[in-house]
């Protein structure tokens, strides 16, 4: 990812060249997933979604979050209080834009998902807000 430090000590299970990623992702998906961009607030398809199911990485298909951990944080992006399991995502320090945040990446392909914030007083079991770009996700609804 351009301008970002590589994930130390970790090799993604899904490895593709940037040309392959560009061929598979549309320009907006590529900008967010591979260049650590951010979609504009309140524009993503999953911001208000209440459908039950599993949210997968849009780049590689890895299962990341369950809808039961999604909550309304009023921030403009889908928010979750926990990934499916701790090994589904990688966290790393992000010092871009003059601030210090914790970036969230897919553990399977190292694509950018969003950021996680702690200690904001959300009424969740973890007091964490995984603020994830809709464009980084694909929801697979539960079967009825």
CATH superfamily caption: Peptide methionine sulfoxide reductase
Find the count of extended strands (DSSP E, 2+ residues).
Answer: 9
Q: pLDDT under 50 segments (min length 5)?
A: none
Helix content: under 10%
Just name the CATH architecture: Beta Complex
Which structural category do the helix and sheet elements fall into?
Answer: mainly beta
For the record, the CATH class is Mainly Beta
**How is the main sheet built?**
6 strands, antiparallel
Strand order of the largest sheet: 3-4-8-7-6-5
Q: Mind sketching the topology for me?
A:
Elements: H1 18-24, H2 27-33, E1 53-57, E2 63-66, E3 70-71, E4 79-80, E5 89-94, E6 101-106, E7 112-118, E8 128-132, E9 137-141
Antiparallel strand pairs: 1-2, 1-9, 3-4, 4-8, 5-6, 6-7, 7-8
Keywords: Metal-binding, Oxidoreductase, Zinc
Organism: Actinokineospora fastidiosa
Pfam family, one: SelR
Provide an overview of this structure.
This protein has 144 residues and is mainly beta. The protein has a single domain (18-141), classed as Metal Binding Protein, Guanine Nucleotide Exchange Factor, Chain A, CATH 2.170.150.20. Helices cover 10% and strands 29% of the residues. It is built from two helices and nine strands; from the N terminus they run H-H-E-E-E-E-E-E-E-E-E. It has helices at 18-24, 27-33, and strands at 53-57, 63-66, 70-71, 79-80, 89-94, 101-106, 112-118, 128-132, 137-141. The strands form two sheets. The protein has a six-stranded antiparallel β-sheet with strand order 3-4-8-7-6-5, with no helix packed on it. It has a three-stranded antiparallel β-sheet with strand order 2-1-9, with no helix packed on it. The longest helix is centred in the N-terminal third of the chain and has 7 residues, at 18-24. The protein is globular and about 40 Å long. The model has no long low-confidence stretch (mean pLDDT 90). This is peptide-methionine (R)-S-oxide reductase. InterPro entries: Met_Sox_Rdtase_MsrB, Met_Sox_Rdtase_MsrB_dom, Mss4-like_sf. Keywords: Metal-binding, Oxidoreductase, Zinc.
């Amino acid at each position: 990812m351009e301008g970002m430090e590589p994930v130390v000590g970790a090799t993604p299970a899904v490895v593709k060249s940037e040309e392959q990623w560009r061929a598979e992702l549309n320009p907006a998906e590529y900008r967010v997933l591979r260049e650590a961009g951010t979609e504009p607030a309140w524009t993503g398809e999953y911001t208000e979604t209440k459908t039950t199911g599993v949210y997968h990485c849009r780049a590689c298909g890895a299962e990341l979050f369950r809808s039961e951990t999604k909550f309304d944080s009023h921030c403009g992006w889908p928010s979750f209080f926990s990934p499916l399991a701790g090994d589904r995502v990688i966290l790393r320090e992000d010092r871009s834009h003059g601030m210090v945040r914790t970036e969230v990446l897919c553990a399977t392909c190292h694509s950018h998902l969003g950021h996680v914030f702690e200690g904001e007083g959300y009424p969740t079991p973890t007091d964490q807000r995984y603020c994830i770009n809709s464009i980084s996700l694909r929801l697979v609804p539960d079967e009825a």
